[in-house]
Amino acid sequence: MLSTLLSENFRLNASLLFEGLTESERSNLRRSAVTHTYKKKDIIFRDGGIPTGIYYVNAGIVKKYKETPKGKEQIFHLCSEGELLGYHALLGEDRYPESAAAIEKSEITFIPKENFRHVLKGSPKLANRLLKALGQEFTLFINNMTNFATKTVRERVAYNLLILEEKFKRPTDEHDAREIVMSRTDLANMVGTAKETLVRLLQEYKRAGWIDSTGKAIRIINRKEILREANLMGSGQKKKAPF
Amino acid sequence: MLSTLLSENFRLNASLLFEGLTESERSNLRRSAVTHTYKKKDIIFRDGGIPTGIYYVNAGIVKKYKETPKGKEQIFHLCSEGELLGYHALLGEDRYPESAAAIEKSEITFIPKENFRHVLKGSPKLANRLLKALGQEFTLFINNMTNFATKTVRERVAYNLLILEEKFKRPTDEHDAREIVMSRTDLANMVGTAKETLVRLLQEYKRAGWIDSTGKAIRIINRKEILREANLMGSGQKKKAPF
DNA sequence: CGGACAATTGAAGCCGGTCAAAACTGGTGG
DNA sequence: CCACCAGTTTTGACCGGCTTCAATTGTCCG
To answer: pTM score, two decimals?
Structure first.
């Protein structure tokens, strides 16, 4: 349950989706694909834009966010290596409901919608996997929304630290060398609070010795305490049935 | 844009999904379907439960919600006549991430998962429509989440009144005879606030003459002012291009 | 090495949550 | 049909978590 929330959360790996495609289908996708490099802060697509294809994150980290008219920014999700980007709008034949931008140097492959649609049309298998993936994403979304609606800022800060530690763990990383490297502003916009409030809570954790930070980088030292702060499960532990 | 938010929002009509099925497919679904009546407050499925099929709302209104360990309830969505229920979890091969309960007497048809899956397997058309529908639902979800994360309680109350007016408009209704009939607690749980706060804001609107309420029923009198309160677009109107 | 941007700290005030009590409503049985 | 009770709605009072504004310190990169 707990591990569910943290590890399942936030890595809908795209490679699963494309497994089981025929070689001709794969090459169809590959042939039309273009890979681009994005610098920090570069925008990949914009809220309200018309989708022209889907994106695959080869490397780096991308934020999906939305700006309010008042200039506030809400970050919903970070996409890292292996994740797809921008396919909801394409499938829904909608405009993008959010924007996407790199928060660090990223390498992203673009697949034009015609090719994607063509392959999708010919592959019920892909369609089914997509349906499954979308269904699962809803679960994540609902959990996230519940967090937003019912948790305090304090709890959300802790929760997001745990999520981010996971997200910033590079496949190549070993041990616990994971650092969260992200601007305070972005982090605040992810938690959904003012950057000042975020900073104060981080300081508090730092003074308590639960995290350490030098510059932007944050490391979790005492995961147990952060977990407690996140209050992920309350006291509502159910008794187990005897089988 | 504005009308987008309100009318598109919240009526993903299921009949569209099933259009274009062959008669044998339809009858396959119909044959296995069972229709049940649920009283107010009856639970249709529970958070954590294992999906055994999907539900179609023939009549009535159903809330999709989640309870936190601390006993708070967050309502995400109301399903009314013509909407499907519980298919995300089925498609995702997940447990339900939320619960569903009738908030008024409702009539709901259940379709066992075997039949649904069987028909889905045989109908790429259905799969495509589902993909499209799911893609569109993400747009709604993201808008909702942005509202939660960035709007004040005051704005969310107004916003939800507009949504609900739409939702409670029965297909049979004419004119503006639409009343929102819902417990204050449910309404508060939808807005994501305490019922006391909700009541105070409603009173304020009532005194201002923007809404009217007798007992549970709420009617919007001055839609314009409520819209302004909801602050749906801020002041960020873009200029139009000259073509 | 400097300048611009980012992070941190301080202080003040309000929005909204919580607790408690009063008023109201609808449904039930006598 | 009416009176009553339980549950719901409403009002009041108070407190505390967050936001906001402002100023200071720190840090990165050309």
So the answer is: 0.91
